[in-house]
Design goal:
This protein is mainly beta and about 180 residues long. It contains 1 helix and 11 strands; from the N terminus they run βββββαββββββ. The strands form 3 sheets. A 6-stranded antiparallel β-sheet has the order 3-4-5-11-6-9, with no helix packed on it. Strands 8-7-10 form a 3-stranded antiparallel β-sheet, with no helix packed on it. The longest helix is centred in the middle third of the chain and has 10 residues.
Length: about 180
C-alpha cells in the first residue's frame, strides 16, 4: 500500500486573506498490484499557473505531465525483487499510467521508459539504482537526478518501499 502523503493547499478569501483550502492525504493516486505507484500533489496544464482551480491534481493520474504543463508528485518503488523482472506486469503498469508509448518493452530492464519531459527527482527514502541504456548509478537519500528525455528505469535496492519526489515539466509543446 502506498504511504499516504499529507497535502496542504492554500487559498485567498474574497478579501485577500490567506487560509487553508484543504489539508489531508492527496486523493490523486494510481497504485499497482506490485505497490508501485504515483501520488500527484499538483499539476498545471498549458497556459501557466491557475490559482483559481481548487485542486490542480484533480485529473487522471498519468505518467507524463499535460502538454505544456507540469506535474508535482511522489512516486513509490516496491521493495527489491517485487515484480522487477516481470515484463508483462511492467507493460500493464505503463498502460495504467497512460504511458504505453513511453515504455521501452525490449530494453535491458522491463521498466525502461522515456517521456517528453525534464524531471527533477529527489530520493527521499531507500536506496535506488538509476538504470540508463549505457550506465547505472546508485542513489542515496537526498541525491538529485535531472532526467532529460532519456530512456531510464528505477530499481529499489532496499527491503522497504522507496519514496521519490518529482517535478515533471513537459517538453513536447514546441514540437
Amino acid at each position: 500500500m502506498l504511504k499516504p502523503i499529507r497535502r496542504i493547499v492554500t487559498t485567498n478569501t474574497a478579501d485577500g486573506r490567506s487560509r487553508i483550502l484543504s489539508d489531508g492525504p492527496s486523493p490523486h493516486v494510481l497504485e499497482t498490484a506490485s505497490h508501485r505507484g504515483l501520488i500527484d500533489l499538483w499539476a498545471m496544464a498549458e497556459g501557466g499557473p491557475d490559482t483559481a482551480t481548487p485542486d490542480g491534481a484533480d485529473r487522471p493520474v498519468v505518467l507524463a505531465p499535460a502538454r505544456g504543463g507540469n506535474t508535482f508528485r511522489i512516486f513509490q518503488l516496491p521493495p527489491a525483487g517485487v515484480g522487477e523482472n516481470d515484463r508483462v506486469l511492467s507493460a500493464d503498469v505503463f498502460a495504467r499510467m497512460g504511458a504505453s508509448d513511453a515504455h521501452d518493452a525490449d530494453a535491458k530492464h522491463p521498466n525502461m521508459h522515456c517521456t517528453r519531459s525534464i524531471d527533477y527527482i529527489v530520493l527521499l527514502s531507500g536506496r535506488v539504482k538509476l538504470i540508463l541504456d549505457e550506465e547505472e548509478t546508485i542513489l542515496e537519500p537526498f541525491d538529485v537526478v535531472i532526467q532529460r528525455e532519456t530512456n531510464h528505469a528505477w530499481q529499489n535496492l532496499s527491503d522497504q518501499p522507496a519514496q521519490l519526489i518529482a517535478v515533471l515539466i513537459d517538453t513536447s509543446a514546441g514540437v
